[in-house]
Amino acid sequence: MRTSAAMLTLAALPLCGAITQPVKVEGGAVQGIPGKDTSIEVFKGVPFAAPPVGELRWRAPKPVVSWQGVRKADRFGNSCIQNIVSERKPWTYEFMTHTDVSEDCLFLNVWTGAKSATERRPVYVFIHGGGNTEGSGAVPVYDGEGLAKKGIVVVTVNYRLGVFGFFTHPELSAESDVHASGNYALLDLIAALRWVHDNIAGFGGDPNRVTIGGQSAGASNTHSLTASPLAKGLFHGAIAESGSSVGGLGLMSARTLADQEQTGMRFAEAKGTHSLAELRRLSWKELTAPAPGAQARFGVVVDGYVLPQSVGEIFAQGKQNDVPTLTGCAKEDIGGATMHPTTTLEEFQRGAQRYGDLQGQFLKLYPAATDEQARAAQNESVVDSMRASMYLWAVNRGKTAKTKVFTYFWEHTLPGPDADKYGAFHTSEVPYVMNALAMSDRPFTDADHRIAEAISSYWANFIGTGDPNGKGLAQWPATAEQPGATMEIGDKDGPIPVASSKDRLAFFEAFFARPRSAAPPR
């Protein structure tokens, strides 16, 4: 990870003649297909574990089932069980899953421009978002061709979602060799990383230069993997887009196994079942059908195995996998600014009560005497809060980490018919990061393509070296190199203050130092 940043962007590499012969992987051989750019070979729907169906439902993933001959990897595999929708604005078609769904869904996809298995290109394993209840490695904006053209071997991966990925129950814990249940989604991702470690060289990838990353829930899962002892040595860098904050995304605490087992028992009762065997006999449609008392949402759990403690506790004790990290947020992120705030002065002042005895200080720092001023102050305060929370996460990480952390703030409005409504919305940087603007029919301009070229180069550099900096790019300082700053990317590229004034940053430093329960919702 410490080779010179000048080695990238690897777009300068000759990318003609990508691997076209079958590649031997665990289970058999796979044959890819040319990408839209024929210098890139794409391997879609490659199984990395056995189908987790029947008696394998709610178990750790098992080894791949072997096949005979050469498996044609020309189409995406099934996505994991979820509700398929064509859009959920602001996320339009290109951000959504469109493949068939099945419990048989443990597939990954590989994009490579390598001409032979000897090239040892850096590898990016991208973990999709979607609240751990939806998403897929086949989502259009996750297309890996754009980054692959910059010398990266890109892998996107499916993992079990919702009740299939996180269900806990005392019977499941009792049957387990490790006396734990839940976190099957994280075990899927760990299995995928082991597959990458053992097989990616055949695609011209370097198993000793693997970066994991994702956006939203994918970012949260990236943090969980960084904390998990089971993932030790399987990756060498981490990227978390819209996913790092003090007290956010479950990083400081998580559900206990005992508590979530009780939720599992109530869920089983609501489904009219009396044993684990009966639960496993239910079809996936029966299991996910609405039922009174069965609306429980299962998530990451401190199970004593995948996560011995909460992610926050593991980081605080310096027990995490210490790898260079890149993380950031978007201007109109969840809980962030809004393009056209409607806050009234009364609502703004009432909302300040969340700061407790710091309320008066907050209103002095963000003064407002009219509705218009209140709306401006609301936007300024939530952006400052969001960036300060991310920055303080990075500062806290630095207390136990030896590697660098780089933070960013994405502020470019994604063009389209709803651009004036949604702005730089949650995860809207993804098509630029992946250099995948071609996967969308939005009215992109030359400026958009320049932004995509720059930000995807930052990502490619980081994946290759652990540092986003490189020739032709604005300098991006690590947090420790320029305290109190973050990197603005989008319409402008360069360091900016974390908050709009030093006093405002000091306010949020004091506020976030309080118990997590005092933190404002994001």
Reconstruct the topology from this structure.
Blueprint: E1 23-25, E2 28-31, E3 33-34, E4 41-47, E5 70-72, E6 107-112, E7 121-127, H1 145-148, E8 153-157, H2 162-166, H3 170-175, H4 184-199, E9 205-215, H5 217-227, E10 237-241, E11 255-256, H6 257-270, H7 276-281, H8 284-288, E12 301-302, H9 311-316, E13 325-330, H10 345-351, H11 359-365, H12 371-397, E14 405-410, H13 419-422, H14 430-433, H15 446-465, E15 485-489, E16 494-497, H16 502-512
Parallel strand pairs: 2-5, 7-8, 7-9, 9-10, 10-13, 11-12, 13-14, 14-15
Antiparallel strand pairs: 1-2, 3-4, 4-6, 6-8, 15-16
How many angstroms does the end-to-end distance come to?
33 Å
% residues in beta strands: 5-15%
Protein structure class: alpha/beta
* Arithmetic mean pLDDT: 93
CATH topology of the domain at 16-327: Rossmann fold
Query: How large is the count of helical segments?
Result: 16
Biggest sheet architecture: 11 strands, mixed
Say how many strands there are: 16
Helix fraction by DSSP (H/I, runs of at least 4)? 25-40%
Coarse morphology: globular
Q: Any low-confidence stretches, pLDDT <50, length ≥5?
A: 1-15, 517-522
CATH architecture classification of the domain at 16-327: 3-Layer(aba) Sandwich
Kindly provide the name of the CATH class of the domain at 16-327. Alpha Beta
Q: Rg from C-alpha positions?
A: 23 Å
Write the CATH homologous superfamily of the domain at 16-327. Answer: Alpha/Beta hydrolase fold, catalytic domain
